[in-house]
Amino acid sequence: MGKIKVENLTKIFGKKPKKALELLNKNTSKDEILKQTGMTVGVNQASFEVQDGEIFVIMGLSGSGKSTLVRLLNRLIEPTTGNVWIDGVDLAAMGAKELREVRRKKLSMVFQKFGLFPFRTVLENVEYGLEVQGVEKDERKATAISSLELVGLSGYEHMYPNELSGGMQQRVGLARALANDPDVLLMDEAFSALDPLIRKDMQDELLDLQQKMQKTIIFITHDLDEALRIGDRITIMKDGSIVQIGTPEDILTNPENDYVERFVEDVDRSKVFTASHVMKRPETVNAEKDGPRVAMQRMKDTGISSIYVTNRKKELLGIVSAEEVSKAVKENHSLLDIIEKNVPTVHPDTPLHELFDVVSTSPIPVAVVEDGLLKGIIIRGAVLAALSSGQEVNKDESTTEASAS
Amino acid sequence: MSLLPRLPLADGIDAFVDWLKGIDGLFDVPKEFIGFTVTHLSNGLSAIPAWLFILLLTGLAFFATKKKFGLPAFVFFGFMLIENLGYWSDMMLTLSLVLTSAGISVILGIPFGIWMAKNKTVESIITPILDFMQTMPAFVYLIPAVVFFGIGMVPGVIASVIFAMPPTVRLTNLGIRQVSTELIEASDAFGSTPFQKLFKVQLPMAKKTIMAGVNQSIMLALSMVVIASMIGASGLGTKVYYAVGRNDAGGGFEAGIALVILAIILDRLTQSFNRQKGVA
Ligand SMILES: Nc1ncnc2c1ncn2[C@@H]1O[C@H](COP(=O)(O)OP(=O)(O)OP(=O)(O)O)[C@@H](O)[C@H]1O
Ligand SMILES: [Mg+2]
């Protein structure tokens, strides 16, 4: 069982949720329920499981129930029906004291608008969680200081929140959550108040922290780019229901329905797609068994003007051009005599936006190489095609378009 | 004219009052307590020589306003004038009446305000009572005060408390309710007990609002002084009251000025304390 398990979790806001529940079971829409009963569906029968150490991103339009869902996970909001298990323990069955214990030790939350206490210094804010647990003054101070260090805020301990920039306040919020050393971080649009540059820094910082400390992170965002950057899995919500859960690639390549597709439309593909998405199967010759004649024949068949050379294990050796090959045939040289070893290569995980330069300046198709093995080649048009359509070019293997020279 | 006989409301109330007076200790204990407090407070205050008192308060004003000169100067010359006019001991009586009433208003008012903030039902019961207390003409409070506590300082304090308490209760409630949901959620999310939440988050956040309520309570208590003098609560109010009776414009004006000076000093002092304690 995962770290967090959610089953059939439903929250209805309003005085008489029973009636709304009945309607929900009959698949009535959120709008219709509001019209008929005046109740608002916050979250509708959500089920999922989050693994230990996973970054689980929740996305959706405004009002789709993201904040409600995450607040159901630490019971800041009581569910109407359904269950949440943390480490296999049912949250709803806990008494007030037990719940406090879970909130103190296992779950910490980072808030969209920071939620810092204005009358407390940065240090006192970060100490708060430990203070309510009754940790000794010296000990909690030491923990708070190292937690502030972790988010790069050493030296600001004695300032008040309103003396800090938004980005710094956000980091204080993060430090406060980390000071408790929780297993799970709940982050409700924790980065949306930040400007793009700081935001990217914070994402990197979060990923770093995640690497170091292996926390389970539930991360809410409006921003697909952010979701794709940091999420191990992404959940898309609409009107309180979960529409799709999947890896970033799943979401991009197989959107479940129009709603998800519209989300995906806006994404900056250059950051999401990598070389492996746009490469195609290469024509090659095997230098250990094929000679110039075979190479010549293969180039003629496929209509290309140069061909990559590998050995039997598919390790990349270099490239030969048609011109050189025909000379070699006449002069009886082997492929290895005429091979050009200096070829442009990229790793399969290279993001598209970094491919632009390499691909556009190279006269020959760029080789995609991993651990010395030739995985594919990228031709110039494929990058642009991927950016404009989102289609994966390597699925379409019939194209045997060749590079110019 | 009417089909119904006149309702015996007055008789009913009289009977109720008699019944209440029959309960042992219900009125004696607060009477003793308030009497003790007012007497000792006024004795204590009167024991301080006027010059020392004036210097102390001027100094206090100087620090409370962060070393500005306006208020300290006003405190100094204002008190000098009162002393000069011969109202010093009356002012001390009035001050002890006001401080006792305001003190009781705060001691009772803040917990009621907290209770209201934490419980919707309590709020919906107390709110109309507060409305009632505030809209009723202040004179009316003299009647139950006299009925249960006789005449003198004690019923004066009682009437003042009833009149002065509502702002503290209201503003405590308001201050706590105004704390943003995000801070409440933050406090809950880190596993605070209700007590920790109240003392570590809600009260500190509501402090300014509560202090504004306390300030208003002090002002209201002061405004009860003249009215309370009608039932024998002595002090500056008595001087005003007598002046009215004797058509003595000059005397009334002097005592009135003394009251105004005291009011301004109390108001500005409490306000500057409130400002000072805010976060930088
Ligand atoms: N306390 C509440 N009382 C009544 N309805 C509520 C309450 N909180 C949320 N809702 C309703 O529940 C639905 C989901 O709200 P929620 O705040 O979870 O959305 P969200 O996805 O977090 O939106 P946003 O991106 O704007 O933060 C909305 O229709 C909202 O009106
Ligand atoms: Mg939200």
**CATH architecture classification name of the largest domain in chain A:** 3-Layer(aba) Sandwich
Helix content of chain B: over 70%
Low-confidence stretches of chain B: none
Q: What Rg of chain B do the Cα atoms give?
A: 21 Å
Overall number of domains of chain B: 1
Number of helices of chain B: 13
Could you estimate the helical fraction of the residues of chain A in percent?
40-55%
Broad shape of chain B = flat
Number of strands of chain B: 0
CATH superfamily of the largest domain in chain A: P-loop containing nucleotide triphosphate hydrolases
CATH class designation of the largest domain in chain A: Alpha Beta
Low-confidence stretches of chain A: 390-405
Return the CATH topology of the largest domain in chain A: Rossmann fold
Strand and helix map with partners:
The complex is a heterodimer of chains A (405) and B (280).
Chain A: E1 4-13, H1 17-25, H2 30-37, E2 40-50, E3 55-60, H3 66-73, E4 81-86, E5 89-90, H4 96-105, E6 107-110, H5 122-133, H6 137-150, H7 166-179, E7 184-188, H8 196-213, E8 216-221, H9 224-230, E9 233-238, E10 241-246, H10 248-253, H11 258-265, H12 269-272, H13 275-278, E11 284-286, H14 292-302, E12 306-310, E13 316-321, H15 322-331, H16 335-338, E14 345-346, H17 352-361, E15 366-370, E16 373-378, H18 380-389
Parallel strand pairs in A: 3-8, 3-9, 6-7, 7-8, 11-12, 14-15
Antiparallel strand pairs in A: 1-2, 1-4, 4-5, 9-10, 12-13, 15-16
Helix pairs in contact in A: 1-2, 5-6, 5-7, 6-7, 14-15
Chain B: H1 9-22, H2 28-47, H3 50-64, H4 70-85, H5 88-118, H6 120-135, H7 142-149, H8 153-177, H9 181-189, H10 194-223, H11 225-229, H12 236-246, H13 249-276
Helix pairs in contact in B: 2-5, 2-8, 3-4, 4-13, 5-6, 5-8, 5-10, 6-8, 7-8, 8-10, 9-10, 10-13, 12-13
Bound molecules: adenosine-5'-triphosphate (ATP) and magnesium ion (MG).
Adenosine-5'-triphosphate binds at residues 13, 40, 42, 60, 62-68 of chain A.
